[in-house]
Amino acid sequence: QQQVKQSPQSLIVQKGGISIINCAYENTAFDYFPWYQQFPGKGPALLIAIRPDVSEKKEGRFTISFNKSAKQFSLHIMDSQPGDSATYFCAARHAGNNRKLIWGLGTSLAVNP
Amino acid sequence: DTEVTQTPKHLVMGMTNKKSLKCEQHMGHRAMYWYKQKAKKPPELMFVYSYEKLSINESVPSRFSPECPNSSLLNLHLHALQPEDSALYLCASSQKTGYHEKLFFGSGTQLSVL
């Protein structure tokens, strides 16, 4: 049972375009929603995170949009660059249950030059 | 220093071998984690240490034995592994012991069990 559903599985975007990755969750007991970026041969790196009392958070070219009523959140990468080509994971943290992170299955992003 | 350093980067071992993975951080983080990641999958939590004490064991088989000698070091001792244990083993740390917030990951140890 996948509690955090991530889409699309893969994404190809042209340089300068907008990359959008979506995640949906079912459990209302999540209290923290991070996005991680992972390059081949490296560990994941925290990109940006949001809490459910905020509808949007922006850091540079990266923006999280959060819709609490729809139980959805998304990552927008503006002006996508070839260096953004990586796998992106969304996650949600349980407020209880040892505050465990539930991960999405990941999105492989390729930005064409 | 905002790095989590893992050694070795690659490890090949037989099913009867005993080996150890090492992880080190000097950020003063008091929570440390072991994750396992299969190719094209998200990381799976194995263990969490909080203030050098094991606080979470995600029902990991006893052939994996974690150890936290001090606040900067984390080891994972491996014994009698199976081929299906082949994966990328990631260490992570976080400042807050309220778990899984702002995780810093190492680059991992790519383990192959023959």
Annotation field: number of helices of chain B: 0
User: Low-confidence runs of chain A (pLDDT<50, min 5 residues)?
Assistant: none
Overall geometry of chain B = globular
Average pLDDT of chain B, rounded to a whole number, is 94
Radius of gyration of chain A: 14 Å
| SSE pattern of chain A, N- to C-terminal | EEEEEEEEEEE
Straight-line distance between termini of chain B: 36 Å
What structural class results from the helix and strand content of chain A? mainly beta
Shape of chain A: globular
Helices of chain A, by number, come to: 0
Total E-strand runs of chain B: 11
Beta-strand content bin of chain A: over 45%
Any overview of this molecule?
The complex is a heterodimer of chains A (113) and B (114). With 113 residues, chain A is an all-beta fold. Chain A contains no helices and 11 strands. In chain A, strands 2, 4, 5, 9, 10 and 11 form a 6-stranded mixed sheet that branches. Chain A has a 5-stranded antiparallel sheet with strand order 1-3-8-7-6, with no helix packed on it. In chain A, strand 6 and strand 7 form a beta hairpin. Chain B is mainly β. Chain B is built from no helices and 11 strands. In chain B, a hairpin with a 2-residue loop joins strand 5 (44-50) and strand 6 (53-57). Chain B is globular, with a radius of gyration of 13 Å.
Feature tags:
heterodimer; A: mainly beta; globular; B: 114 residues; mainly beta; 7-stranded mixed sheet; 4-stranded antiparallel sheet
